[in-house]
Design brief:
By secondary structure, this protein is mainly alpha-helical. Helix 1 packs antiparallel against helix 3, helix 1 packs antiparallel against helix 10 and helix 8 runs antiparallel to helix 9. The radius of gyration is 23 Å and the shape is flat. The protein has two domains: 166 residues, no CATH class; 167 residues, no CATH class. The relative contact order is 0.11. It is 70% helix and 0% strand.
């Protein structure tokens, strides 16, 4: 097992998690346009802080006066995202160098290079297209996908050494299908959450369990889910009508209910497997799900405080990683069961009297 490949996979995954959470903080603190250009900030690679630098920057970008704290938030996010890109390049380089080694992953590390390059382009378009919701949501989904694939890469590499150590998760076909469904549902719910956040409609329903004091207030789903809108408009602060924003928020709430049912059902099914691994993963999954639901409720009750809102984004990432882990362990079980059957047959054959 290539330990360098394994270490970089997990280090990159942890860094990707940090970048996703940091990106949420930048967005929620209204610093997404803290730097009006890309890849620098007001034409520099350091955010302007000195009075003279700020004056020059204001003359160059009169439409976006310098706010140093916001500019630094944006640039720090870019620095860490660039570091993540370098780690992914290193991972791909190791995979290519070891490509002839049996069991070495190659296609996924190379795909991650393409993905992180596309992420960089989305980061640029996020700024140049003035926080267009479709671009910002795609940027979030790309970050989550990068995180998920890095974690999956590390787990796959690790599972190769754990196959004969009883570390796989033995399940039933039904649980396997629920695990895959849970993964799809959570990713779709992350997309809905991103659309809710990038359109600034998280507080369009300020009460629970009703919305604006009604079970079904006026909505406009057509406007709310028009994915591509006018170019050149500054979308900071949101541009949807109240009815359209309400439609988006209500859809996200409906998605939360579906996620609770599917992922909660999977957690219960894992508990009922009767194995120690099943209980561990069931408890972990239900715990992360409960935390995420609690954070979502607190966002409404406490009127979207930034620490809770950022934690809600982090909770979504942790829920995604938990489901990636469960699916990976279930998948690794295919080979472990086959090896066990082979070993059993070998033993049975050797035990026959000669």
């Amino acid at each position: 097992m290539n330990k360098a490949f394994l270490r970089i996979s997990f280090i990159a995954a942890l860094l990707a998690l940090f970048v996703v959470v940091l990106g949420a903080y930048v967005r929620l603190s209204d610093a997404g346009l803290g730097c009006p250009d890309w890849p620098g900030c007001y034409g520099k690679f350091l955010a302007p802080t000195a009075a003279a630098d700020i004056e020059v920057a204001n003359q160059a970008f009169p439409e976006r006066p310098v706010e140093s704290p916001k500019a630094w938030k944006e640039m720090i996010h870019r620095y860490f995202a660039s570091a993540l890109g370098l780690l992914i390049l290193a991972l791909a380089a190791i995979a290519w160098k070891q490509r002839k080694t049996p069991g070495q992953q190659l296609k996924l590390p190379l795909f991650l290079v393409l993905l992180v390059g596309f992420q960089g382009a989305l980061g640029m378009w996020t700024v140049t297209m003035l926080l267009k919701p479709a671009i910002v949501t795609l940027h979030l989904l790309g970050g989550m996908l990068t995180l998920a694939l890095l974690w999956w890469t590390g787990l796959n590499h690790l599972n190769k050494s754990a196959i004969n150590n009883g570390k796989s998760l033995v399940t039933t076909p039904t649980v396997k299908r629920w695990a895959l469904l849970g993964l799809v549902v959570v990713y779709c719910q992350i997309a809905l959450g991103g659309w809710t956040s990038t359109n600034y409609v998280a507080l369009h329903c300020w009460d629970l369990p009703t919305c604006q004091g009604e079970w079904l207030p006026p909505t406009d789903f057509k406007e709310g889910f028009t994915l591509w809108r006018e170019v050149g408009v500054n979308y900071e602060g949101g541009a949807l009508s109240r009815e359209a924003g309400t439609a988006v928020h209500l859809t996200h709430r409906l998605g939360a209910i579906i996620t609770f049912i599917v992922v909660g059902g999977l957690g219960i099914k894992l508990l009922l497997l009767g194995s120690a691994a099943g209980r561990r993963f069931g408890i972990l999954l239900l715990g992360v799900l409960g935390l995420q639901i609690t954070l979502g409720v607190l966002n409404i009750i406490l009127v979207l405080p930034i620490p809770i809102a950022v934690a809600h984004n982090g909770g979504a990432a942790l829920l995604l990683l938990t489901l990636i882990t469960i699916n990976s362990k279930i998948r690794s079980n295919k080979k472990s069961v086959a090896d066990a059957l082979i070993n059993t047959n070998d033993y049975s054959t050797s035990a026959q009297p000669s």
